[in-house]
């Protein structure tokens, strides 16, 4: 693949998904790291737990993603020292947006999905573009498989349009296990057709009991 | 120390080779309320006597968490101490950002000392009027340092600073040789006893002292730097007092923790 002489980014592929429920949030990402048509590793996590109720999944250029995650984790530690409590998910959402826009003219090549519980304990998902434009939604997908997954989530989660008035809650009425099954199904489908998605699926579930992690095998071809 | 013509500026030496402003800054530390620190091979404990400006106000915060593996207790101008704690926190965060590992405690103490030294050599600055006991855990074990306003720092097994700290130091001098093998519970008890010495008669309760501990447990996991909550402190104080009241049979005392020091004489 030939790029401009000054192209400093590369796309390491992968897909991230998050779904918010009434009192839980599911954040999932595959673990394949690629460059061009090659696989660099089958076992690389794209998920970062920034606070006890706030999890970030990012796909894109891993160099920028690692730097972004480290930056946010350090800022969260500073917040903890100053406010004597951990950052809430909506607060981290704004911080992430500001951090991304700060590099508006040399962006982080990272497509982010932030998931967790808000201050009332309800699930929340925030979806971003590379320069920090963000929106709170009930579910989102980002990365190379996002175009394959988003329409399926739209169909299954029946989330009302944000244009409707009065504003309706975007979180899905599905139970936690149903949401996890849906995530597994959409990833299995995306793995079939997207060459950059596969190997293993890492699922992180945040609810009031805490955070837990699950790994599911995906097709390795 | 008396007022003299060489003590106005920090950048003026006296004929005897002293910097009076720096020495006056050390006096400010002696005016602050007491703090003690002590350590074993694996744990370090900091304790501070709380002083409130009046009965109506809350007490001064004297113990600050600086990182997961380290914290400070201060005596003197607590506002200066707050600012230095913020500096230490950002040093720890910056170090772990670059090196992905915790800042070793000796380097933390060094950064603080270098910062304090700058203020002793600038005509437009004044020395920080606060002494800090820096306690932390790193690869080489638990450490306790004392940082002066002069920019000097030393490592200690146990130390006390602030007003009436001599009483606490005398107490610690008698016992410090055994501290390397003390359990965390024994360290906490000795820290509380040392603080009690500085209160001189006033009753020791969980509301007039703060205790924090950091260390590595026997199984290798880390106990991050944390202030012990008031309820647990009160329980420990109560068990210490009960043991004192029955000095003839210390072994019969019901102790909360595993680390019973029934063998050590309670000759406070």
Main attributes of the structure:
heterodimer, A: 221 residues, alpha+beta, five-stranded antiparallel beta sheet, 4 helices, 30% helix, B: 268 residues, 6 helices, 10 strands
Question: What would you say this structure looks like, in words?
Answer:
Chain B: Pfam families: Proteasome (PF00227), Proteasome_A_N (PF10584). The complex is a heterodimer of chains A (221) and B (268). In chain A, the strands form three sheets. Chain A has a five-stranded antiparallel β-sheet with strand order 10-1-2-11-12, covered by helices on one side. Chain A has a five-stranded antiparallel β-sheet with strand order 5-6-7-8-9, with helices on one face. In chain A, helix 3 packs antiparallel against helix 4. Chain A has four helices and twelve strands; from the N terminus they run E-E-E-E-E-E-H-H-E-E-E-E-H-H-E-E. Chain B contains six helices and ten strands; from the N terminus they run αββββααββββααββα. A five-stranded antiparallel β-sheet of chain B has the order 8-1-2-9-10. Chain B has a five-stranded antiparallel β-sheet with strand order 3-4-5-6-7. Classes of the chains: A alpha+beta (221), B alpha+beta (268). At the A-B interface, helix 1 of A face helix 2 of B.
